Amino acid sequence: MAVETNTDLDRYDTTGFVILKGFYPDRVVAAARDAADELVERFAKRLKASGRISRDHAGASFETRLARLCEDVPDEAPHIFRKELHLAGMYDVFFYPPLLDIVESLMGEELRLYPNYSIRPKLPDHAPTLVLWHQDGGYTYKVHRDGDHSAETVDALRMINVWSPLVPAREDNGCMQFIPGTHRIGMARHEDREFYLEISQEDLAPYVDQAVSIELDPGDIVLFHNMLYHQGLPNRSGQVRWSMDWRYQDARQSTLRSTRGHLARSRLNPGEVVRDANDWTSRVFQ
Ligand SMILES: O=C(O)CCC(=O)C(=O)O
């Protein structure tokens, strides 16, 4: 499979994505990894307290500890962390000024952190973390029916997704794959599978041979359009593929969900913008 290296922001409109290598300084990556570590520690403490595990694998590496813990309690394996992300270490990731500058240049100065921000531990060979071919808009249209919105309304959302790994992401451990240009072809039909939606074979087949793998290192980010066809490959390695994904939206639009997100930049409502890490940790997922 071709590994894509489009780093040209001017091609974002055409391809629907851009890779920015070495974007975050080491301190931001380290703080985000510490946040993820903290989530694992809380998970281990909860299992220990309930007597479901006898060993907390505290000496295991960041890349392996969660997998070791889950070997004993596979039914408890987390597939995503969302509400838990109001941690200081995540503030610099989501509200990093150079990132907001780029997003502002693409989408304007009213920016919301969309109420869909995640840390994903993709465990080895673990179906509940294997995200199938989809458009994010497919979930907004089919799953989040909080509003009575049409496919066209979803397509008109001005939104930019960001994905960044906390460990090197390669084809063998479940990197992302995109199909360039598919953000321009409108809403695909999405079918329900056991854990996720999947674009129907009829809508996927004409494009799937153009898929590219997005191999990234910690500190790299990829920005992509929320209507782009994308998937995460299976994790065939023995370690956890840790990653973060989040989205910004033009804050003048509705989220089309009952949750409102948090303002990242605004001239219209400056008092509501998340001010700093303390402000972020005092807020909740909404
Ligand atoms: O991380 C993955 O494997 C999938 C993430 C994804 O589909 C997304 O960020 O929209």
List keywords for this structure.
alpha+beta; globular; 9 helices; 286 residues; binds 2-oxoglutaric acid; seven-stranded antiparallel sheet; three-stranded antiparallel sheet; 12 strands
Write the layout of secondary structure elements.
Elements: H1 12-15, E1 17-20, H2 26-49, H3 65-72, H4 88-94, H5 97-107, E2 111-113, E3 118-122, H6 136-142, H7 151-155, E4 159-165, E5 176-178, E6 190-192, E7 197-199, H8 201-204, E8 212-214, E9 221-225, E10 230-232, E11 241-250, E12 262-265, H9 277-282
Antiparallel strand pairs: 1-9, 2-11, 2-12, 3-11, 4-9, 4-11, 5-8, 5-10, 6-7
The chain binds 2-oxoglutaric acid (AKG).
2-oxoglutaric acid binds at residues 120, 122, 131, 136, 161, 163, 174, 176, 230, 232, 243, 245.
Straight-line distance between termini:
38 Å
User: Share of helix among residues?
Assistant: 25-40%
The DSSP helix count reads 9
Ligand inventory reads: 2-oxoglutaric acid
Number of extended strands: 12
Q: Name the helix and strand elements from N-terminus to C-terminus, one letter apiece.
A: HEHHHHEEHHEEEEHEEEEEH
Strand proportion, as a percent range, falls in: 15-25%
Give start-end ranges of low-pLDDT stretches. none
- Whole-number radius of gyration? 18 Å
Structural class: alpha+beta
Shape: globular
The biggest beta sheet is recorded as:
7 strands, antiparallel
> What's the mean pLDDT score?
93
Describe this structure in words.
- The protein has 286 residues and is an alpha+beta fold.
- It is 27% helix and 19% strand.
- It is built from nine helices and twelve strands.
- The strands form three sheets. Strands 1, 2, 3, 4, 9, 11 and 12 form a seven-stranded antiparallel β-sheet that branches. The chain has a three-stranded antiparallel β-sheet with strand order 8-5-10, with no helix packed on it. It has a two-stranded antiparallel sheet with strand order 6-7.
- The radius of gyration is 18 Å and the shape is globular.
- The model has no long low-confidence stretch (mean pLDDT 93).
